[in-house]
Amino acid sequence: MNWQAGKVIEEDHYYDLLAHDVSGEAWRAKRLLPDRSSGPCGSMITARFQELELDQSEAGHPNIKGTSVNFYFDEIIKVPLNTVVREESIVNEKTRSLSSGLKLARFSSLDLSFEVDNSSGKTIFRAASEDPQVTNVQINRIFESFCFVLAYTRSWSALVVSRPAGTVCRLRAVGPEHIKTRAFPPLHISHDSVTQTVWSLFDKYFAYVNQNLDAPYHPLSVLLRTVAESGKASLDVQALTLSVSVEKLLMEEMKGLYDVSEDLVRNIRCASQLITESGALDAPFRKRTLGALGAMKNPRAKDVLAKLRQRGVIDGELIKTYGELRNKMAHGAHDPDADIQDFFNQTNTVLVLFYQLVFLLMGYVGSYTDYGEYGYPTKEFSGKLA
Questions:
Q1: 250 vs 252: CA distance, rounded Å
Q2: Nearest partner of 124 among 106, 108, 97, judged by Cα
Q3: DSSP alpha helix (H) spans, the chain
Q4: Euclidean distance between CA atoms 129 and 215, whole angstroms
Q5: What is the DSSP letter of 255?
Q6: Whole-angstrom Cα distance, residue 323 to residue 296?
Q7: N or C, where is the chain less crowded by C-beta within 10 Å?
Q8: What number of other Cβ atoms are within 10 A of residue 155's Cβ?
Q9: For residue 324, is it left (φ>0), alpha (ψ between -120 and 50) or beta?
């Protein structure tokens, strides 16, 4: 293990672990970097790993017809509950105690049924499908959708997937969470009945990300996680990350909304010819100017936003605030002694803009929380691309 400083550790330095528990089951972990500590009594090999997996997919599970997915968390996750659970204690055939309360959330999306269970003191998120061949990528999409509607940034502690072929169990080491994100979810979770819309939001997002099952993680989910994680850093970092993320979302997912006009293309072509043929300009200047003209053929993020504003699907004030914050952060013009309240308001407003762009992509119409206003009021989003 002769590693060079500054160089990414190569694959041949990593090890895989195979370990058998007391019942003889084989658990595996991948990509371990072992470390050796030597002393007078010999050497000790240690390693840290993030995940252990028990794969029993070859054993068969005749009692299961479809696919069952259970995510276990080592904490209670606040979600809008909608199902009453009754608990009865019976001693010698007599009821000793009886209690009931909202402890479950049940909903469905596509061909799957979902349940969030907080009754045990820890959260369990269950998904069930009649399809016996739900893929690992589809399971990722389930968890991605859960993280989106709750702005959840941590991992599950255990994942159990059961199919007719058998069961796979994965355990993860999840450390205690000390830092909460300021990037709140699209619809703030409260006791208000309107937050039941969270599961409608889940349904729309889950349907959208399931259209792309090529990559292990959907690009939009990766971007959303970046935004959520930025809320754990300084306000400057969050503002910069949000500004870049809005631009990335516009250019990767929505640039087709803006078409460069034929007049602009013709003007660029004429200007390029004039510059190329000009003997009064030196070569470096011509090259730089031609490059700038060529870039004008591609839509900019502000062009796409202007098109959305023209359609009336995005509030112009959100776009204006984004432009101010983006320019300030991208060009290093932010004054650390400026009004912190105003800076905080601008950052929250751009977060709302980011969520509204996601709403447009997945076709969501309904309640959302406006973090750009004091009191975080619930409002209705009605914008549609089509």
A1: 6
A2: 106
A3: 136-150, 197-209, 219-230, 235-253, 262-277, 283-295, 301-311, 316-330, 340-362
A4: 21
A5: G
A6: 19
A7: C
A8: 17
A9: alpha
Distance between start and end Cα atoms, the chain: 57
Note the pLDDT of residue 90: 76
Res. 302 pLDDT band, cuts 50 70 90: confident
Length of the chain, in residues: 386
**DSSP-assigned beta bridge partners for residue 172:** 51
Backbone angles phi, psi at 88, to 5 degrees: -125, 135
Rounded Cα–Cα distance for residues 352 and 283 (Å): 46
User: CA-CA distance, 208 to 305, in Å (whole number)?
Assistant: 21
Structure tokens at 226: 């970046």
What is the C-alpha separation between 50 and 172, in angstroms, rounded? 6
Residue 100 clears pLDDT 70, i.e. is over it: no
User: Does residue 321 have a pLDDT over 90?
Assistant: yes
- Of 97-101, 254-258, 294-298, give the range with the top mean pLDDT: 254-258
> Cα 30 to the chain's mean position, in Å?
24
Q: 204 near 385, Cβ under 8 Å?
A: no
| Residue 49 contacts residue 29 (beta carbons within 8 Å) | yes
CA dist., res. 175 & res. 193, Å (int):
33
Q: What is the spatial distance between Cα 351 and Cα 386, in angstroms, rounded to a whole number?
A: 23
Distance CA 213, CA 352 (A): 27
Contacts from 312-315 at CB under 8 Å and sequence distance 24+?
312/383, 313/360, 313/383, 313/384, 313/385, 314/353, 314/356, 314/357, 314/360, 314/383
What is the rounded CA–CA span in Å between residue 369 and residue 380? 9
- Is it the case that residue 282 has pLDDT exceeding 70? yes
Name residue, tokens 């959520």: 228
Q: Which residue has the tokens 């959100």?
A: 318
Task: State whether residue 297 is helix, strand or coil.
Answer: coil
**Distance separating alpha carbons of residues 37 and 40, to the nearest angstrom:** 11
- DSSP labels, 11-77: GGG-EEEEEE-TT--EEEEEEE--EEEEETTEEEEE---SEEEEEETTT--TT-SSEEEEEE-SSPP
Per-residue pLDDT, 99: 65
Closest to 49 (Cα-Cα) out of 67, 68, 29, 69? 29
Largest CA distance in the chain: 104
Quick one: pLDDT at residue 298?
Answer: 73
